[in-house]
Write a structure and sequence with these properties.
The complex is a heterodimer. Chain A is α/β, with parallel strands linked by helices. Chain A contains 9 helices and 10 strands. In chain A, strands 6-7-8-3-9-10 form a 6-stranded mixed β-sheet, sandwiched between helices. A 4-stranded antiparallel β-sheet of chain A has the order 2-1-4-5, covered by helices on one side. By secondary structure, chain B is α/β, with parallel strands linked by helices. Chain B folds into 2 domains: 5-220, Rossmann fold (3-Layer(aba) Sandwich), CATH 3.40.50; 224-291, Alpha-Beta Plaits. Chain B has helices spanning 43-50, 72-78, 94-104, 109-120, 136-148, 166-181, 193-196, 216-221, 238-242, 266-279, 294-302; strands at 5-14, 17-27, 32-36, 58-63, 66-67, 79-82, 154-158, 185-190, 201-206, 209-214, 226-231, 248-254, 257-262, 286-290. In chain B, helix 3 runs parallel beside helix 5. The longest helix of chain B has 16 residues, at 166-181. Classes of the chains: A alpha/beta, B alpha/beta.
């Protein structure tokens, strides 16, 4: 088998807040074009790790390389190569759809022409062309999330980080969202995604399960189900979380 | 005391948007009643009217003998509400949040502790931690404790488990069942279909309307068509492969399988799908018939009309 290129390399990552160890010696890697599901209970340390990977927070110790760049030394350089979408905040509610595209396109250094082209492309795909001038706050959550995903992709990043992109979204929109994920993954973008929906864990190529700051398991859903003798990922997750308690 | 809820001809609009369209619904005393629907379907608007926070344009809601408009003060005393967006003060500690709610409702924590004990005991070890520093699951438990501290007859929970992990969700529902055993009527909204199955009855809502009100089992029983689950080694392209396959009504990804709905003879369909996928070079093909789950029913109801 051909060896796959690695786009994220994490070695002995530790993050402490005072005495509290949020990330306890994490070591893992992510392949190019892979869809990696990053799972864990609330408070397991997922968001802390993501913030370090995307250069928003500095690790206490350890090495983190994203897209071949040492995040600790060059956080700004990393930011150009990645897209990030968080559940809480991704687009500005008091700006229109168009203004959000322009703002993020500008932040990522795209030309006006490029921004216009990318925006047309995405709005057409989402069948939202007539919503260009609508304020984000008037757009339903499911649509917002699909827009946010498009905006996070506007600069064709190497890796896209999605933090609970489908929380509270209806079952049809959730599925449409995953088709969008597959599409960017097919075009070579690496997808790093967190979710609490265990059916979505099955859609990932590999899954990493964190618990109390540590990585408890990391493998394909198939292998994890076999290892934990579980029918589905929900059972795997519950077994792992319960074991730790 | 267990209390019933009666909703009649309820309507509410925000400027041009009709948020609720002629809602009629009766919820029995001590029922654990679920509302399922996508964002924007009207669940939160309904809950806000029910908890006297906004006024309906038309129609009435009665909790027992109380009217949500005329008797709003009484209703607030007997209702516990946990809004979707966080109801806690992040810079107050766990204990301070609880004290705050107890003071507002003029109740004594010690006197009512017995009711919240099941819930609060999980977070009591962190009583001096700020609410903002709690994990998602613990915040939900604190919010539930605060909503229960005045011994309400009716508990209204707006998406209490959104953003909460699978283990905490399970615990949360175990707690809800305990609250129900104490005679409280519980209304809860959720985007998780597996939680719908835990309710006594559920209402499916879409764009301000009640699409159906049923026991979970009846929803599943009334599903029309047969569900076939399809599994192969390489799942990713399978959805496109089966979309539009002759005899197929709907195809959706469902975790590690694909659910295909058909009104044709399931045995014949199974065979044809198997042959088709074999020809296309798929491996380890498994096609089986399965019972529908609530999510299948919801997807069928939600299916947008043909364009």
């Amino acid at each position: 088998m051909k060896t796959r290129d690695t786009v994220i390399e994490v070695k002995d990552l530790v993050k402490k807040f005072g005495h509290f160890v949020a990330n306890d010696h994490l070591t893992f890697h992510v392949y190019k074009g892979e869809i990696l599901g990053f799972l864990g209970a609330n408070g397991a340390g997922k968001t802390t790790a993501i913030k370090i990977l995307i250069g928003l927070s500095k690790p206490t110790s350890g090495k983190v390389k994203v897209a071949g760049i040492d995040v600790n030394k060059n956080p700004e350089k990393v930011k150009r190569r990645i897209g990030y979408m968080s559940q809480r905040f991704s687009l500005y509610d008091d700006m229109t759809v168009k203004e959000n595209f322009r703002f993020y396109g500008g932040v990522y250094g795209l030309s006006r022409k490029q921004i216009r082209e990318r925006m047309r492309f995405y709005l057409k795909k989402l069948e939202m062309e007539s919503y260009e001038d609508m304020l984000l706050r008037n757009i339903p959550l499911g649509w917002k999330q699909k827009l946010a995903f498009s905006v996070a992709n506007i600069h064709s990043p190497d890796i896209i980080f999605l933090d609970e992109p489908t929380g509270g979204v209806d079952p049809i929109t959730r599925r449409q969202f995953w088709e969008m994920i597959y599409e960017v993954s097919d075009s070579g973008t690496t997808v790093f995604v967190t979710t609490h929906y265990m059916d979505e864990a099955e859609y990932c190529e590999r899954v990493c399960i964190m618990s109390e700051g540590k990585i408890e398991a990391m493998d394909t859903p198939e292998a994890l189900k076999e290892e934990y003798n579980a029918k589905n990922m929900n059972e795997v997750f519950i077994k792992i979380a319960r074991n730790v308690e | 005391m267990s209390i019933p809820v009666k909703i009649e001809n309820l309507e509410k609009s925000y400027e041009k948007v009709k948020a609720l369209k002629n809602i009629n619904l009766e919820i029995r005393p001590n029922e654990l009643f679920g509302f399922i629907g996508p964002d924007g379907s009207g669940k939160t608007t309904l809950f806000r009217i029910l908890t006297t926070l906004i006024l309906p344009d038309k129609g009435t809601i009665r909790l027992g003998n109380y009217d949500v408009v005329k008797d709003f003060k009484k209703i607030r005393k007997i209702t516990g509400y946990m809004p979707g967006r966080f109801s806690l003060y992040m810079d107050l500690t766990v204990e301070e949040n609880l004290m705050f709610y107890a003071r507002i409702f003029k109740v004594d924590i010690k006197e009512n502790y017995e009711l919240i004990e099941d819930v609060y005991s999980h977070i009591a070890p962190f009583r001096n931690r700020r609410a903002g520093d709690l994990s998602g699951g613990m915040k939900q438990k604190l919010a539930l404790s605060c909503a229960l501290i005045h011994k309400p007859d009716l508990l209204v929970l707006d998406e209490p488990t959104t953003g909460v992990d699978a283990v905490s969700r399970k615990e949360f529902w175990e707690l809800l069942k305990k609250m129900q055993q104490r005679g409280i009527t519980i209304l809860v909204s959720t985007p998780y279909m597996d939680e719908a199955a835990l309710c006594d009855r559920v209402a499916l809502m879409q764009t301000g309307r009640l699409m159906s009100v049923e026991k979970p089992q009846n929803i599943v029983n009334s599903f029309s068509g047969n569900i076939l689950t399809v599994k192969v080694t390489r799942m990713h392209p399978l959805l496109d492969e089966l979309t539009g396959f002759d005899g197929t009504d709907r195809v959706y990804r469902f975790g590690d399988t694909i659910h295909l709905t058909t009104r044709r003879n399931p045995e014949e369909m199974k065979e044809r799908i198997y042959h088709h996928l074999t020809e296309k070079g798929y491996q380890n093909i498994v096609v089986t018939q399965a019972e529908p789950v609530i999510e299948d029913c919801f997807l069928a109801l939600m299916e947008p009309p043909e364009k």
